[in-house]
Amino acid sequence: xxxxxxxxxxxxxxxxxxxxxxxxxxxxxxxxxxxxxxxxxxxxxxxxxxxxxxxxxxxxxxxxxxxxxxxxxxxxxxxxxxxxxxxxxxxxxxxxxxxxxxxxxxxxxxxxxxxxxxxxxxxxxxxxxxxxxxxxxxxxxxxxxxxxxxxxxxxxxxxxxxxxxxxx
Length: 168
Description:
Blueprint: H1 10-14, H2 20-43, E1 48-52, E2 55-62, H3 75-98, H4 101-123, E3 127-135, E4 138-139, H5 145-167
Antiparallel strand pairs: 1-2, 2-3, 3-4
């Protein structure tokens, strides 16, 4: 990831044609996440809904970060984590606006999911997680659509970084 050497202001970066696809991707992932959560929150009356032997819908409210890590009832800690997440999103947006095509796509996937969860942190004061993958009595962390995209983006980033370092 090599930022442009030209000095540009933030508005010229946002409206640069090369950033159109990443912005559309971010918005698509954000709205897909919002739609999935609104459907669950609107149409889901039961605590748990059985789909098959490996998947349930189980609505949980997450006050922590990804997959419920660092969940807390402390407003101070919650607000600190929310501010930290916001700061990371801003940094990632700058990286998207100034990076090459592959990094733009990878970080856009992460940002789209992160914005979906950040919206919930602000609006609901918690993130609704509802996808419950399991095998017999082993349950993975309950997660949502935004978490899927954040995870995919991080996996792509790690693969890209690993493959590039191996080639050198």
